[in-house]
Design goal:
432 residues; alpha/beta; UDP-n-acetylglucosamine1-carboxyvinyl-transferase, Chain; 2 domains; four-stranded mixed sheet; 14 helices; binds uridine-diphosphate-2(N-acetylglucosaminyl) butyric acid
Length: 432
Amino acid sequence: MVTYKISGARRLCGELDAQGAKNAALPILTATLLTRGLNIIENCPRILDVEVLLDILQHLGCKVTWEEDRLLVDTASADGDSIPEYLMRKMRSSVILFGALLGRLRSGEISSPGGCELGPRPINFHISAFEQMGVVIEERHGCLHGVLEHPHDTTINLEFPSVGATENIMLLAAALPCTTTIYNAAREPEIEDLQAMLCSMGAGVRGAGTPVLVIRGSGKLRPVSHTIIPDRVVAATYLIGAAVTGGELKLNHVQERHLNAATTLLSQSGCQIERLPDGLYLKAPERPRPLGVVRTMPHPGFPTDMQAIFMTYAALAQGCSVMIETIFESRFKHVPELRRLGANIVVDGRMAVITGVPWLYGATVRADDLRGGAALILAGLAAQGETRVLDNGHIARGYQTPEHFLRLLGAKIEALEGHPPALPPEEERDRG
Ligand code: EPU
């Protein structure tokens, strides 16, 4: 358990380099399993989800070495073909290892990932696509066992542009001696990064960033050196940190086109945004204007991963904003906690109505998921007085030492290890 202790209402000002993207690092590290030899992955974020994935890769027999933010992954003797439940449970996205194992060994076993803090996380699109590609899948004692029997050219129509299903199909397809076409593929920048990696490995992949992906696989993929793209959600988090504290920030090494949805909302609501040759500059307005109606959508729409952090921003705007969460069922867990800090937010199903207030006030709150936790830290940075964000490891899953980077910008924040006194039950806190 970590408690982030924040003395708020201090302007965040300065310059930061963006960290590597979690949601690109996970499939890219997984893709190393399709090769036999030494892969060099640059700009890899040192975050908990990456550490969990590295535990899994080591369990399968890979050798892993960190050299600052460069990661060496030697897959030469990785012969494991199953991932135990205790490791699968630590990270829901480990389901993409199924595609990589099937690609490498033609068989594999994972435990069913089940649900997570965002609600039920079905994998029916993954399973159905693999079956179409010639994998025979059986469910035994809570485990999924797959054997690739008849690889052949396949056309897959995804019901929804699922990021994980698109990646899983790409990983398996890249290793097969045939052509796989995905219609209604996810278009996120992380898919483009995976395409770049698979192409360097020797597969023929094209179409990333569009709804149609064509993957011409190869039976012999080679180890590569690859640099992970910057994390757009972490970048947006620091931009909002400056925006809610009346500050200014220069963010280096971000890819501005990946942040379009965020920068459009920030500039429409009054932030001054300048595009720099290798980054972005933001200057906060006196007080933001409201955001209008924001609906989370697959890329290039407004990302669900930025919904919570933008809610903190909207909570301080001069007027009323509406946020509609269309991607995940349980992604408003930060709302009762933001209310404890003085935010005025009403939720009806998947819609939240946020009436901005001039000030938030410090309180003790609990992070229940990664992005919600980041939203609470942002609220604490803006709030008057002291805020404590109690976190059972969610924030470190995706943010590399946020307390360190925020201190560089002038924040007063400490990460205290240990068990703080328990919070009262949620109903009582809601009444409080
Ligand atoms: N879905 C299904 N069946 C499937 C797969 C998905 O019904 O077989 C549904 C999901 O339940 C959800 C929707 O489709 O309602 C979108 O799920 P998707 O598969 O696109 O998400 P994911 O691959 O599980 C990734 C990111 C998430 C991000 C989503 C959406 C990684 C490791 N995770 O998840 O990131 O929110 O795409 O963009 O890439 C985060 O970083 O905090 C995070 C949750």
